[in-house]
């Protein structure tokens, strides 16, 4: 199987061009390629596919093989892949995802995509649609018990589920211990991505993330968008915020009137290669 490894703010995935390759069992293939010791090493697998309703389609799988509806860093990398490889010459690309059609604007330097702005659509705050098991109209700054401690959570879906927790200092979070406890908490029937957010000032936040199905990653695009919406709901920041992640920075604009979130950030190729996948996978 031919692949390209790409990253957006250090959130790295194996991309397969399904106009040329067939991936029969993507859940299993994602586990194999993502393994950082016995595979290529990545946060998951992303398939670039033909679409009947948009220019391209994305399917994305976490490192544990579970499928997600959306991947913010992944959609930017797909825009770079299809443009740089001459699969389109459009500077506004439409992409079908399990969370609807997303529109990607590419910014090029010397003919190659450097940055991409994505219309991430409307944030969803209704608990039953995130989903979060809470008998409320919206989950803002709600107290929950996790591993014997109280945390205050704000729930937002960007097509995939997020739980945002504000902390004094992201460096002091024992994320390997607390991340899985959030992910598998009974409040979240489809598990959850958890963002730990430190407010730097009204235009800047620092974020660490525990991703559903993968663990701690260096960045999460949907998570950055969900966090900026959560900041706005808690009146902690303005609506245009730079999110500092372990692997880089994303610029997020929350347009409350239009009810949409725009994410802008980089996309880079790491390497290309070929891997033998057993027939049963
Ligand atoms: N890293 C991604 C999100 C990947 C999916 C997530 N782990 C989930 O299961 O929903 C991003 O950049 O948005």
From TrEMBL:
Q: What is its main location?
A: cytoplasm
Q: Which GO terms describe its biological process?
A: lysine biosynthetic process via diaminopimelate
A single GO cellular-component term on record = cytosol
* UniProt entry keywords in alphabetical sequence: Amino-acid biosynthesis, Cytoplasm, Isomerase, Lysine biosynthesis
Q: Where is this site: Could be important to modulate the pK values of the two catalytic cysteine residues?
A: 162, 211
| Molecular function, one GO term | diaminopimelate epimerase activity
| Enzyme Commission number(s) of this protein | 5.1.1.7
Q: Which Gene3D superfamilies match?
A: Diaminopimelate Epimerase, Chain A, domain 1
What reaction gets catalysed by this protein?
Answer: (2S,6S)-2,6-diaminopimelate = meso-2,6-diaminopimelate
Q: Where does substrate bind?
A: 11, 62, 72-73, 160, 193, 211-212, 221-222
Intracellular or extracellular location(s): Cytoplasm
The transmembrane residues are none
Q: In which pathway does it act?
A: Amino-acid biosynthesis; L-lysine biosynthesis via DAP pathway; DL-2,6-diaminopimelate from LL-2,6-diaminopimelate: step 1/1
Q: Where is the active site?
A: 71 (proton donor), 71, 220 (proton acceptor)
Q: Which InterPro entries match?
A: DAP_epimerase_AS, DAP_epimerase_DapF
Is this entry keyworded Flavoprotein? no
Pfam family, any one: DAP_epimerase
Instruction: Give the matching NCBIfam families.
Output: DapF (TIGR00652)
Q: Which family does it belong to?
A: Belongs to the diaminopimelate epimerase family.
PANTHER family associated with the record: DIAMINOPIMELATE EPIMERASE, DIAMINOPIMELATE EPIMERASE, CHLOROPLASTIC
Q: Which HAMAP family match?
A: DAP_epimerase (MF_00197)
Q: What does this protein do?
A: Catalyzes the stereoinversion of LL-2,6-diaminopimelate (L,L-DAP) to meso-diaminopimelate (meso-DAP), a precursor of L-lysine and an essential component of the bacterial peptidoglycan.
Subunit details for this protein? Homodimer.
The protein's name is: Diaminopimelate epimerase
Highest lineage ranks of the organism? Bacteria, Bacillati, Bacillota, Clostridia, Lachnospirales
